[in-house]
Design goal:
This protein has 470 residues and is of the alpha/beta class. Helix content is 49%, strand content 12%.
Length: 470
């Protein structure tokens, strides 16, 4: 893309229509400005850029809500009748009222005169009152292209058709439906494409915006899949070796199991944090709008018997839990596999400890009277499926959303289930490589993953990408 000036867009409309929310979603900045139910939240004009290839392609200006368009129109009607509408606006802006009673409106109109186009955000739940006509006429007086953006269109109280009629009556025929909290698939593309019909001179730049948004979305999916694959390898490789006497002590064993479960939770939590950041959400968003997260911790139990049973079925394993007895059943319920159990004695261990690879190590552990704890496939399945669901929910989520992040738990999603089951199966080689467990953030710089591990992670990432195909 050649160096071009950013397209300047004012986001205008009645107070509380969702202007700031729209900007959060369009710029993927969950922390832009202030959003609240109380009217008159935005008090000053503030800009936010949408960057393409590191350059601002669009500069948006958030504006305060129009509050008293009726009175302002009356005031304007009293100004020089010979002047054109934009001249009258300019005259008004030079008068004392622009700093007095109409201070908020003046900020909007001043911005309007300096931009390429405006998005007129409309809360379509509002009845089509006469004051809105005044707002539209006021904006039209600035002689800039105006693209109405219909917000809250999914709401039961939507009066979309009445609004469309009114807007068309004022010459605003090109209209976009855009839900700031949960944008429709492709809504952003439509928004910029429609804008390009109003700004023909900037068509090329707007098309490059559309293309780059699509490329970014694909890249985010790729990175998300790779991150989840990394978690899968990491959790599959996890293995704790326990001497038999410790293992025999119920309290000790419980503590070990709990510690192992916590390790899985922590790894999964880090993955979630990374996914939130990748999609431009903050960890705090989850707190204010609970994921299954409470005070930064998950409440979703990957190790619950129900989750395990469900995962077992999806993995074609049947009722593993029901078949096991005693300690093995305890562990299975806890989502943990027992790697080796036999207690034969350690005397000959040293003889086979060298050069036998994973098999040799298992054998040695057996002989040395050591148990190995690893994570059940069912848990891996549940953890991975949940991260994929979260990713899909984040893809659909507007940065204006304040509701719960609904990582919907529908069992009808075939693609994610298939991809997850395939990936969990394909992750088996990691089970023989406890050294593949990642060592966390602190030592990441020194920790060099084996090429074999990286190849497996890349393969799993490709498999997981299948979750996004519907
Ligand atoms: N459900 C839902 N709520 C939304 C949407 N857009 C905005 N809201 C909510 O509507 C309220 C007002 O949103 P804001 O973005 O602050 O509206 P604004 O137009 O910037 O308001 P002012 O700055 O006061 O003029 C907030 O409570 C938002 O969470 C949407 O698309 N869906
Ligand atoms: Mg606002």
């Amino acid at each position: 893309m050649t160096q071009q000036q950013a397209i300047l867009i004012a986001v205008v409309g009645h107070t509380n229509a969702g202007k700031t929310s729209l900007l959060r979603t369009l710029t993927r900045r969950a922390n832009f400005g202030e959003v609240s139910q109380r009217p008159g939240t935005t008090r000053h004009v503030e800009s936010a850029d949408l960057e393409v290839n590191g350059q601002a392609a669009v500069r948006f200006f958030d504006t305060p809500g129009l509050e008293d368009a009726v009175a302002l129109r009356e005031h304007l009607a009293g100004l020089d009748p010979q002047a054109t509408p934009p001249e009258r606006i300019r005259n008004f802006l030079q008068g004392p009222e622009a700093h007095g009673v109409f201070e908020q409106e003046a900020k909007v109109l001043r911005t309007m005169l300096g931009i390429d186009a405006a998005f007129l955000v409309i809360d379509v739940r509002e009845p089509v009152l006469p004051k809105f006509r005044d707002e539209i006429e006021l904006l039209n007086s600035c002689a800039r292209p105006v693209l109405p953006v219909l917000n809250f269109v999914r709401d039961a109280a939507s009066r979309e058709s009445a609004w469309k009629e009114l807007l068309s009556a004022y010459g605003l025929h090109v209209q976009v439906r855009f839900d700031a909290a949960a944008p429709f698939v492709g809504a952003e593309r439509e928004l910029y494409t429609d804008l390009s019909t109003l700004l023909r001179g900037r068509r090329e730049l707007l098309h490059s915006v559309v293309d780059s948004l699509a490329a970014e979305a694909a890249e985010r999916r790729r990175v998300a899949s790779a991150r989840i694959a990394e978690l899968l390898v990491d959790a599959a490789a996890l293995r704790r070796t326990v001497p038999a006497e410790e293992f025999a002590d119920t309290a000790r064993r419980k503590a070990l199991v709990a510690a192992l479960q916590k390790d899985v939770f922590d790894k999964a939590q880090r993955c979630t944090d990374d996914l939130l950041a990748l999609y431009g959400f903050r960890q705090g968003d989850a707190g204010e709008a609970p994921l299954p997260l409470v005070e930064g911790r998950w409440t979703l139990d990957f190790f619950s018997p129900e989750a395990m049973k469900d995962a077992g079925l999806r993995l074609g394993k049947g009722a593993v839990i029901g078949a096991a007895v005693g300690v093995v059943a305890d562990l299975a319920v806890a989502g943990i596999s027992l790697g080796a159990g036999a207690a034969v004695g350690g005397a000959i261990g040293g003889a086979v400890s060298q050069g036998w690879g994973p098999f040799g190590r298992k054998l040695v552990n057996k002989l040395r009277d050591v148990h190995e704890l690893t994570i059940e496939d069912g848990v891996l399945f549940t953890v991975v499926a949940w991260q994929l669901k979260l990713t899909r929910a984040l893809e659909q989520r507007g940065h204006a959303a304040t509701g719960r992040i609904a990582a919907e738990t529908s069992a009808t999603q075939d693609a994610p289930t298939r991809a997850t089951a395939a990936a969990v199966r394909a992750a088996r080689p990691a089970r023989n490589h406890p050294e593949w467990e990642s060592k966390g953030v602190a030592v990441r710089g020194f920790w060099r993953p084996a090429p074999q591990r990286e190849a497996l992670a890349a393969e799993l990432a490709r498999t997981l990408q299948g979750a996004f195909e519907n």
